[in-house]
Amino acid sequence: MKSILPIGVALAILLVPGLAPGQEVEGVSVCRKCHIDQAESWAQTSHAKAFESLKPKVKAAAKQKGKLDPDKDYTTDAACIGCHTTGFGKPGGFSAATPASEHKNLAVVGCESCHGAGSKFRVEHGNAEERWKTGKGETARDVLVKLGQNFDYKTACATCHLNYEGSGFAGAHPPFKVFTPALDPKYAFDYDKEVLRSGPGTGVHEHFKLKNVFMGEPVPAIRDQLQADAKDPD
Fold first, then answer.
1. Is the distance from CB of 50 to CB of 133 less than 8 angstroms?
2. What are the backbone dihedrals phi and psi of residue 208, each rounded to the nearest 5 degrees, phi first?
3. Residue environment code for 143-168, b if the CB has 16+ CB neighbours within 10 A, otherwise e
4. Which end of the chain is more exposed for a tag (fewer CB within 10 A), N or C?
């Protein structure tokens, strides 16, 4: 089955990293409680509006070019919603039964699409910051990995953006995305370039200075470059 939109087609069961036991997707509203600056910036990105593109008559010209039906509602198509929502197929994630009242929380490509389902590691974030504030030192970053936080952003992006034949991504699999560089060069995806573009209209929220509450490996390969130009949070 064909998907729609450049953001991809792979099922979200691959998009969201593996879950620690008992871990669930919580949605943007939970992340926002602590990461207000990031959430407000993310809300202006294309990822925040990804689900809207699946609706009838939205981006009609692009759909026609990709030989899709611009009048069709793709918001219940499993081949599409995996890459246009958060946590599809995972505990707590988006599903066909998700009420409209929760769409702003889960019918988006939200925080956990890149960072992993957060019900476990977000608790450790709070605990670690408290230890750091009270002079008890930093926390080993691998603790977060054991609790399900993802630091391999490149693979998380590729799961959707490079899910087409000939992309070079080893994880590409049917159903392949429709919107590829062969259809239009604008659909080419360069992770190293795109992850540095942030703010309104891009896919990534603006980058803010981190407090170095955590230490050690794994460190995202792009971290130092992002932090060099990061803003101070409000």
1. no
2. -120, 150
3. ebbebbbbbebbbbbbbbbbbbeebe
4. C
Q: How far is CA 71 from CA 54, 80, 104, 109, 220, in A?
A: 10, 15, 23, 23, 41
pLDDT tens-digit series, residues 194-208 = 999 999 999 999 999
Q: What are the two backbone dihedrals, phi and then psi, of residue 140, each rounded to the nearest 5 degrees?
A: -65, 130
Residue type (1 letter), 177: K
CA distance 168 to 171: 9
DSSP state of 191: H
Element (H, E) at 215: strand 214-215
Tell me how crowded residue 170 is: count the other CB atoms within 10 A of its CB.
Answer: 9
Angstrom distance (rounded) from CA 210 to CA 48: 23
Q: Is the pTM of this model over 0.85?
A: yes
Q: For residue 140, what is the DSSP state?
A: E
Task: Give the pLDDT confidence of 131-148 residue by residue, as tens digits.
Answer: 999 999 999 999 999 999
